[in-house]
Write a structure and sequence with these properties.
The protein is an alpha+beta fold. The chain has 4 helices and 6 strands. The chain has a domain of 120 residues. It is flat, with a radius of gyration of 21 Å.
């Protein structure tokens, strides 16, 4: 009896894993169309925020087409991904299956442009201005993953004969 249940559980786990890895194959065209429209809208909103920051600071940061980006692919992928593959004559929502995560910038670098359309990340070795860094932890949280990878101190405590000590967050962290 236990063998039957064990075998059934293993089959269910394997089936669940298979379905999760192949979920894009099962999406209906209507859902894919909604995702595509949502990607377009989020990209437009990000561009508006990016333009505002550039006007205020004269500093270019974030998802932006490069000179080599095919205009047809802009807004196809969700923010943080780019289209990797041969570009068809007409880009369709179903082409989102070729979206892959953009290359993360190394510590000391930020995303200057790229990670848009069919262009991967273009990272720049420069410090992000302090006001943009601060805003990425507040009103413009979408910028957080684009600025220089960094750590935050937390868990402050007093160490006798040493003074204040703390722990550091991971470089890969998120703000709520």
């Amino acid at each position: 009896m236990n063998k039957k249940y064990s075998l059934l559980i293993i089959i269910l786990i394997l089936l669940s894993y298979y379905l999760l890895t192949k979920k894009e194959d099962f999406l209906s065209p209507a859902i894919v169309e909604i995702q595509y429209e949502e990607n377009q809208e989020r990209y437009k909103k990000f561009q508006e925020m990016q333009e505002k920051i550039f006007k205020e600071t004269d500093f270019q940061i974030g998802y932006k087409p490069t000179d080599n980006t095919d205009k047809k692919t802009i807004g196809l992928c969700p923010l943080g991904k780019y289209y990797k593959g041969e570009i068809p004559e007409e880009v369709k929502p179903q082409d989102m299956s070729k979206c892959v995560p953009c290359t993360k910038c190394f510590p000391g670098h930020y995303l200057k442009e790229g990670c848009s359309g069919n262009s991967d990340s273009v990272c720049e070795a420069e410090k992000v201005p302090h006001n943009i860094f601060i805003r990425s932890h507040g009103e413009n949280k979408k910028l957080h993953d684009l600025i220089n990878p960094h750590q935050h101190p937390y868990g402050f405590y007093q160490e006798p004969n040493v003074g204040q000590k703390f722990k550091l967050s991971s470089f890969d962290h998120y703000h709520i």
